[in-house]
Amino acid sequence: MLELTAGQISMGLVAADKASALRLLAELLEGDGLVAPGYLAGLEAREAQGSTFLGQGIAIPHGTPQTRDLVITTGVRLMQFPDGVDWGGGQIVYLAIGIAARSDEHLRLLQVLTRALGEADLGSELRRAETPDDILKLLQSAPQELALDDQLIGLGVPVEDYDELVLQGGRLLRRAECVGGSFAAALLQGEPLPLGDGLWWLHSDQAVQRPGLAYLTPEKPLRYLGQPLNGLFCLASLGDAHLALLERLCALLIEGRGRELARATQRRAVLEALGGEVQPDWPSLRLVLANAHGLHARPAKELVQLAKSFDGEIRLRVADSAVAAVSAKSLSKLLGLGVRRGQVIELLAEPAIADAALPALKAAIEQGLGEEVEPLPTADAAVSQELCETPPPTAPAAGSQLQAVPAAPGIAVGPAHIHLCKEFDYPLRGESPDVERERLQQAIGQVRVDIEGLVLRSEAKAIRDIFITHLEMLADPELGDDVDARLKQGESAAAAWMAVVESAATQQEGLHDALLAERAADLRDIGRRVLAQLCGVQEAPEPAEPYILVMDEMAPSDVARLDRNRVAGILTARGGATSHSAIVARALGIPALVGAGAGVLLLEPRTPVLLDGQRGRLVVCPDEGQLQRAHQEQESRQRRLQLADTHKLEPALTRDGHRVEICANLGDSAGAAKAVAQGAEGVGLLRTEFIFMSLPQAPDLATQETEYRRVFDALDGRPLVARTLDVGGDKPLPYWPVVEEENPFLGVRGVRLTLQRPQLMETQLRALMQASQGRPLRIMFPMVGTVDEWRQARDMALKVAAEIPQADLQLGIMVEVPSAALIASVLAREVDFFSIGTNDLTQYCLAIDRGHPTLSAQADGLHPAVLQLIDLTVRAAHAEGKWVGVCGELAGDPLAVPLLVGLGVDELSLSAGGIAEVKARVREFSLSAARELAQDALALESAAAVRELAERF
Ligand code: PEP
Ligand code: MG
Which domain holds residue 100? Predict the structure, then answer.
């Protein structure tokens, strides 16, 4: 991106006329190596097409698309002409900003400049400036307008306390592109100011990109510092942009109208009271901007001139962006939007002129606003361009075998049911409101018939309920009203329907209620069904027999919603074995293969496939022999499992009598009894965040205590290793807003987050300790990377334990951040145990996101680097007499079992369904042989080499 610096500015130049000024500029750009000789012709040609005078004594000379190839490096040079240069038509330029740009990199610079254009007497100040810094100050210090519009108001937000309300404020400002990621955290550190009537004011100037004000009211009455908390202003402060608002607010408060704000139920009313931006409810249309360099000065000028020819207001915005619509008659405002080629813009016009203005503006924009425009690539062209870069995926041929990532064991056979999120193509404008209304009703009617059929066919009540909810949504009168309003404005049925559905879904997601968030997914689901009807796209019907569900990627919630009686197996094009969706698939016992490549999405619907979730193999159209072998294997695996099953309640002893403890990983309290019945000798990892996720709001002390007690009761004296909340990364809590981060896996996750919310952590510790009642409780903290984090968390636990004495309590950490493994010898002196989370340890050690769509298949925990970290951890722990478990997915991988045991791991914790098999595996080898195997593996070069070695063991 182009930035302005003092080094780019030449002061005190003299030019007799525009031609000489352009020559000077060309010499400067060429001398500094930004352009090749010949650029001057481009500068001149551009001026001949239309003056680059911007206003306020500034011109922005630049080349034409034809001279773009002469640009060596994109850059700018500024030249001050204190005596002025006539730029034509009596327009005097004191500052020429020469731009050498290959594409639209300079749009951002124009955004900055155009803010300065609003300044009263900028031209003469630029003329008088004495140093480059003076010029910079003048250009950059222009006040920006305070953002305050519909989307910055949140009324009746469901939050539990002040902190959550502040985080929501930060979130609104972030969404409006006012602030960066660290703003909300800075806001939380601030001291709020009570304004009376339960209103509070809070501000921060950290990470502010443009000034903005968010206003929020909580859903239920809250208190803060002993006073009511009815409404909170969160200011992203930059310069003096907020002063006018502040004055207006003070006047409101003095007039005694604070209660009006505190009790407001309409965003519009708040905006009107505060003087914010109220979006007009005008006819609008959308279209894509095709100009190569975006809406830069020249086309923007054309647009302004055309807009000015209409006697009424016209506004323009980037569609679906956070930035409010601006007047299409203001050049600086238009440039300030920084619209790029390919972006969809929305034009709004006052009803009195809309019929004439909108089509005229649309035609002018489509014709390029005075520039030649290359048509945007169509979807097909974009695809073919992509295809040139990477070989096109092809559907695997009948009889072919594919290797993919084994995600959940088991063999499954069935017809492929391809579930794809298709892109639909539809016109934005409709024929007439009546025609479009009729179309929509027909489409909705057809979808209703389809869903009614699904209701009749669904045996599981939970699934039937989902479809019944879909039927209710289809009949929702509010959706209908909103759609109708859009149809009346001339939108097509598809455009109106999708805009309303998307906006309702987004609103529901914003409420941070798990149930409503699910409803948002349901809404989108029916939205797409209706859209498919409108676009005449047939979604493949579900096969009647159990099928193999083929998807691009799957989210944990997708898997959790599957009907196990209908889905025999899962196959995805992308994804890895330790993503949480794979973990859910394993827990549900559905064989799954992930990361099979895009080709599988091209399989013909109902193609018979055979999926081996153990070996990671897929066979397309298996022949009789292959099916038979699969059945034989299935049977022999079944026999092996049955045999293992008969010994599942016995301890796992190696041939030479070394005992390995085998425990279960749990994501809910209900599974504990079943896990014990499946041979679990305890719970080695209770993922408590899954309990939190299954509830519509954060569970209170009593609810948590009941959940944990249920696990203890089922364990009947066996130990419970409970992990404190591991929220963050790919496990956000819908009702618990956190600051958005670029890299959530490297952000405020696990213990880092709970240490920031000590109250929450303390409640959880209290609930665990109250539930234990003398039974063996092990508490571990996730994502510990430093001794300090461990000590802080430990001290909190010890404080609670001092109040609720424990007969058998151990405190430990998960080793899943490489730093913890590397300082294990220090930590081992203080902890009671380590539990190695190989899923995260692998992702952080190999720097591969565990959910990465294409790379995560390589995130193999048997990589020698990961094994080295495990080795280090075990040695450090044993030197201090502490025990070590492994609770990542590696613990359930039969190939990894002898390696982990050989490295000295004392406990393996895995999905309960795999316990019998892992116990049987332990009984197959001796500890001494396993040790040798592990030592050999440590010296190998790759995960593949380790797997090969382990296969031969
Ligand atoms: C791990 O990281 O290995 C682990 C067990 O924790 P989770 O998979 O829940 O992040
Ligand atoms: Mg983890």
Answer: 6-140
